[in-house]
User: Fold this.
Amino acid sequence: MVVGLGAVEKYFFSNKLGKGPISDLANDFVSGFRKPRIDMIQNMTNYWTDLENEMQFMADAAGKVVKIDGQFHTYMIPRNFAELIEQQQKNETPSVGKTRETPWVTSLIFSCEGLHVLNCGLDNPCDPNEVKENAMRLKAHPNAPWFVTVSHHFFNELCGHARSLRKQVGKLTNQEEGLGTGFTPLGLEVLDILLDESAGKRILIDVKHMSPKGRQEFYRLRNEKYNNAVPIIMSHGVANGLPDFGSREPEHYELGRTFVNPIEYETGPGGSVIEKDHNEINFYDTELVEMVKSGGILGLQLDERRVANDITLSGVKKSPWKHKMMHYRSELIWRQIQYIAELLDRNGLYAWGNMAIGSDYDGMVDPLNSFWTVEEYDDLMQFLERHAWEYLKKTPHPIQMPVNKISADRIVENIFSNNAWAFFSRWF
Assistant:
């Protein structure tokens, strides 16, 4: 598993309700945090130290063996693909899980969500030299993250973010500062540090949460400055159903209309009107095509607030029978898979080689009903295979390229296993 480390941004907890008990209660409800941690985050003055503590915490427990439901387990932190293979081969031992000496091994590959962890985006302007020094320290860390998102939920003085918070959380917080802006001069310097191969192993860039303007700038720099030598990573996202940056109407209308959220308008300071576009956090058709051409990957997010718009979610059939509910809810993910596959096929690309699962289960998500955790992955696989099988029976079929006419079980196996493993083998 790729796990997202990172300091929680203090502006979740310094919100429109202030910092008092009412604010703490609201934040506790929406995020699962408890008051001592909330108080600590509200008074945060150093994100970098918070990240270091988290990385040390994870490192300290690596290799420790625990017994769960009669089986022995541990986790390890691989630093490259060779170590990943070595760790996973331990699970082929005949006695695996039966003794403390032969535990099941889960390999945890670190990523990092938000470069505010370099100690920027706080109450006062950051020290650019400190931020750059921390970027170099991050690269030199023995358990350095494989990739990072530059942006997260709030402005970090490096690059603007896409609007990501809705409903009760969106009403309590203020994402407006830096929203939709591109890279700052300091952000470009940090980008150079992370992608510089002459100063240690590269830390790759994950474009999730980055503003549309920032993403466009990164794609241009990737082509012109970094010689297309790094993949485009979309660690936890989905298609927004729109053809290109700035589009408001879907091109592939039948499916795209189930994704596109209507623009929301809110009255701001002095009677100004704030336009809230909740589509920008997801990915446009042109980006998905470019991602595949780059040898990149899209981790399909399992947050139902992202995979479909409110109208579509409200229209999903309901049933008291669990298997029927699983069928109806899994179709929301299948529509995303189908949309992306047809898009890639129309663009002359292999349709089934760059999608994986990017659940975001370590984030603040609302999972698809009845697919709450990794425990339900087997069920999700079975229901997606059912949807794939039904889809493949269509005549005439939307998929035209012979290479993309593969079996339902292979489609699902690629998405849940083969594609991620192939990406690890090439880039990790």
